[in-house]
Design brief:
Jelly Rolls, 11 strands, 2 domains, DNA-binding, cNMP-bd_dom (chains A, B), homodimer, transcription (chains A, B)
Amino acid sequence: MTQFDWTERFAGTAALPAAVRRRLTATARVIHVKHGDQVFGSMNVPESLFFLYDGRIRVSQSSDSGREIVLYRIEAGDSCVLTTACILAEEAYNAEGIAETDVTAIVLPKLAFDRLAAEEDAFRNFVFAAYSRRLIDLLRVVDDVAFGRIDVRLAERLLMLGDGLKEIRKTHQELASELGTAREVISRVLNDFHKRELISQSRGIITFTNKPGLAAIAHSA
Amino acid sequence: MTQFDWTERFAGTAALPAAVRRRLTATARVIHVKHGDQVFGSMNVPESLFFLYDGRIRVSQSSDSGREIVLYRIEAGDSCVLTTACILAEEAYNAEGIAETDVTAIVLPKLAFDRLAAEEDAFRNFVFAAYSRRLIDLLRVVDDVAFGRIDVRLAERLLMLGDGLKEIRKTHQELASELGTAREVISRVLNDFHKRELISQSRGIITFTNKPGLAAIAHSA
DNA sequence: CGCCTTCAGTGACATTGTCACTTAAGGCAT
DNA sequence: ATGCCTTAAGTGACAATGTCACTGAAGGCG
């Protein structure tokens, strides 16, 4: 494999001295995961830190009864602290990360991570910031699930998923898994949206017909 | 104020060299908060890290509509990373910390924190571990709220709050705020528990009459 | 004792979740 | 093209939870 310089991609490594960066590119492994495959999960806990070089990962949690909820998404340039957290806390967890696109990630051995966190302020702050973002993300999820109305949440999510697009290719089941609810509930609400001429539907596809209308619902709480 | 040595109380500082510990006790402030008072909140964001020396803090989030949910509790010896997270992420948040007992906390200026995190492995790991625990706590909250039944959650929470006790002094409203639901819902479920002779009630007090029975409900999902 | 505040109970209703189905759409093999 | 098969979506009945607008009850205190 070519030793390409991924360090410029991350806020925590871009500003490091050239020597340190060379050491990193030599130590870390680069992995590729195909769209749709699991990046990590309860059966597959990486022993190391990892950083998302390219692509997007969807992190979700699933219940015993088979329902599922999306916690947040990891974008290129960010690090995935959840696996780290679980290693540190030595706790089982039922969250998993799925590659939403083809993914290129950097896997940094724990030892190298520790050394870097100790020696480089920029890197350490980057990691703290990554933890913080996830904590804030989860606060938001809790707020939504505990206090939000399902129609508002769905409208929000549709707009988020369809940002800049005319349609979304997702099944009702997939949308239900986004919000941690049941497919039937999504079907009902989408039907309502359809009756109000905010969207139109066909198998596996939702087409926007009135984004401002959806936005009004999304912001009505 | 007496410069008492709080450093022995924390996993992240107990093992530090004596010189470092002296520097810390000189730099950090010790604060006291009375039972029931707010330790931090949206109007009151501490600019510094803080560590809980003694007492217990309840961290909760509240909705616009006035409902509230307890996220987790901070016990003596732990650090409070949420405020740190919010500083780092530069995000508004609507979580607040309330002293559940009289509280003694150590407030460490950001500068001292950074230096310590850079220089001392034990301290840095302690902070990472604290972040991790909170992340895991929140995963649990999301799981409960999104997928859990209210009777199961209430039974669990009653047992947790009443651990080792014969009764709990909490109003229905307070229990509702623990779980992020409405008072009426708690009243209904408690009534049901009463009919099944698991508890007995009087104004502001819930008395256990059958803890194993409650435990059975708590573990039935 | 009566007043007042806070806590708890109640019934009607809305929203959301669950269950057990049916119906429809599209892919694929013959 | 035709029928088969898998997956997606619709439906109605019901259960669980949340909301609203009240009423009633308990305890503190003048």
